[in-house]
Amino acid sequence: MTIRVDKKEIRKDPFLRFCMKTGIPLSILAVLLLWGGGYLPFPYVNPLFVFCTSLAILIGLAYNVRFVMLSVRSIREQEEHAKQKK
After folding, report:
1. Is residue 59 part of a domain?
2. Which of 30, 57, 63, 69 is 20 to 30 A from 24 (CA-CA)?
3. Per the UniProt record, which residue ranges are transmembrane (predicted)?
4. Is 37 helix (H, G, I), strand (E, B) or coil?
5. What DSSP character marks residue 5?
6. Number of alpha carbons in the 13 Å side-chain half-sphere of residue 75
7. Angle at CA 72, nearest 5°, toward 2 and 26?
8. Which of 19, 16, 4, 25 lies closest to 59 in space, CA to CA?
């Protein structure tokens, strides 16, 4: 028996959806701030870029950790279900 992880089902998790909906726009904002930091004369653009980038990295890390946790949980449930069938 092969064990497969249903990625579509895992991505329905509310926390993962929150991470996607906040992390993607935040990373786009960080890229825009990086690009604009060289051209805009405002001194607060670079610290704002660092803040947005670090927050986007933390959200991405949290997303990946949660995704792996849910994947492992799904695999364990499938293994237990397979053992009960035997």
Report:
1. yes
2. 69
3. 21-42, 48-69
4. helix
5. -
6. 10
7. 120
8. 19
Flag whether 7 is in a domain. Answer: no
Report the run of H or E that residue 51 belongs to, with start and end: helix 45-85
- Is 5 within a domain? no
Environment class of residue 56 by beta-carbon count within 10 Å: exposed (0-12), middle (13-18) or buried (19+)?
buried
Going residue by residue through the chain (86 aa), what tens digit of pLDDT does each one get?
577 888 888 889 999 999 999 999 999 999 999 998 888 888 889 899 999 999 999 999 999 999 999 999 998 988 888 888 87
**Distance of alpha carbon 74 from alpha carbon 85, whole angstroms:** 17
Full domain range(s) for residue 42? 30-75
